[in-house]
């Protein structure tokens, strides 16, 4: 099926559903029930065939769709082309008077604007009003935040970006919708909605907080605040405000106080303890978080929201409500539980400072705008047995995070290290395993030493432009040998696969070990058997060492591990001797910690400060001692360990660090 037909079908479906929705609203409206018969007849006639109405609408877009289809047929490269030098960035907004505007887009654009100016000091960044004639420099980027505006002539700018924060259905109605080079979406729902309609890059790109405006402090009052206009349709927040016994300071049209200026929001939140969030109908529909949520968290204030789907942007659970009863319950709980309040606000603030500031958005946008490259990840596992080795899953998660920025990524098992595609690779990343790789000279080659350090020689490392060392201890040893093309880069975890799960069922009272024996009676399992402690083992090659009743399965799919970890009271881990002696922490330490489970492990050298909330054993006696300690302890604090991994040890972090190193080397070579 041609691209033209695909887009036509998708848009027809969307607008048919929209027409049906409008018809249902019309039939339930006061005007329909009370209007005259002629008006009802005319309106029914208009909505008689929603699909035909949608197709008529699509005809208005055929020119744009034809242009796209012809480009594809002619083999046109549909990827965007960056200006040679970016001289300016323009944000298209409703108003440029940020101080006095009542609209949200100028504030959001202005906050990102200043963050971009810090990262791109030689680039001018402007706000531009949508209703004024404008021309954009050819070496400029235009970021449009308004669905109802048209783009200037194509020759007047270098790159066009649509930042879709809401009204995704209205964005696609604009005749210029398919002309954008990049689509930034404030929620995953918008990403999923836009992606089928374009071949261009589509990114999850939520708004964030300007932490320079907020100074987190502990609250000194029990004040509750809500900032938001009162709409015609009654919502849970309105019913709550009408019946609530607590004093709530409200701001907005139709509220107790007039609309408050954006510059006064920080002080308002400082004088409060709880901030209420009630998203409007469109924001709820598209599952976007508004500025209120980010700003309250930045001020270290508890936010209680009515948007469960949108709040999942944060790994730390934001309190939510569906009705006024739930809202009252949440407020009472946090007003009467100071420890719970403090733990929640600190965790949310910590996550925001590490992931959801405009500084992070500016960095992400800069990486999105970088030239796209072909990346190959080399692993030592064979095609036949790759699923039995952690390197395969490690490479998949790393590749996913490179692909987010639009790069082409391929994973090569050892049989495919020298395939014909390698000639087009611009960046080669070798996850060093049991076999050494011979780098090609016309590529940038990076070695990531994550295991078997005893096999790697100085000569091998010198064949790479740069080497990442996953051990602080080994890294320092190499520096002492005057090796300069190295930096520290620990292993990590995939936070999409490993995360805390709310405890709803009792934990299984047995130790859990996941891993193949590899013909070795591994210490973590051996100690449990010798001490008579119940243990469940998942992995192959164990029948020669332990009774079959302890072996629950010989294989567990990687995507099932998080659920498995969360079902047990204690998860075990051990390392090969060379990993211990060289200070290499396995990725299982990061995975289990990220899941919020309790981990008992032997300890590689110099890893005391690497991860929090891990119990370490050194021999059989300490193994038993730590198990008893875990069983008598309150391990709710393990979520802090999970938060630490999410903030600092995710594949997203590592992909960014590797890309920065690549661009640094590439600029020197150019």
Q: What key phrases describe this protein's structure?
A:
670 residues; alpha/beta; 6-stranded parallel sheet; 26 helices; 40% helix
Summarize this entry quickly:
With 670 residues, the protein is an alpha/beta fold.
Number of strands: 22
Relative strand content: 5-15%
Largest sheet: 6 strands, parallel
What is the residue-averaged pLDDT?
A: 87
Weakly predicted, low-confidence segments:
29-35, 47-58, 60-80
Distance between the termini: 42 Å
Helix content: 25-40%
Strand order of the largest sheet: 2-1-3-4-5-6
- Roughly how many Å is the radius of gyration? 28 Å
| Molecular shape | globular
Describe the protein in words.
The chain is α/β, with parallel strands linked by helices. Helix 1 (3-27) packs antiparallel against helix 5 (62-73) and helix 9 crosses helix 14 (324-336).
